[in-house]
Amino acid sequence: MPTIVVEVMPKAELLDPQGKAIAGALARTGRGDFQVRQGKRFELTAPGDEISQDLLDHVREIAADVLSNSVIEDVVAVRVVSDAEHHAHTGA
Amino acid sequence: MPTIVVEVMPKAELLDPQGKAIAGALARTGRGDFQVRQGKRFELTAPGDEISQDLLDHVREIAADVLSNSVIEDVVAVRVVSDAEHHAHTGA
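ok -> structure tokens follow
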């Protein structure tokens, strides 16, 4: 079944306290000096065998309206993953 | 500056209540019948101009030890993003 990945990140101009906390923890534990931002990754699996342009457009709408808050977040990617990429971690 | 994206998802065999809640909301609002899983996406920006194999290996360790809980989550990707991809949404 086709899977669509949606990636959402906090807007660049906004503070990201979760990311800051992780960056602080990495520095304190001697793991190095990184800037970190934390966002979300969704996998949407649709019934059926293939992904039409309509379905992809529909998922783009869902990403903008439901999966992200446009005041504070950007949808940075809406992409179809290959079965191979998907199954590599689901073990299917 | 080079940016490395780390993607973490709940293990396939475990329940994902957040994903289930989103799937329920999509169905209730007439947006269609999807399976949804929610994970995390991190952007780590390292100082310096390029990403060495050592740095990438180090980030893989951070992904496994700090950014994910291996009991319930899988690291599904550790990948370098191009400046173009990164700047597209940071507006830099």
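Chain B touches chain A through 38 residues (CB under 8 Å).
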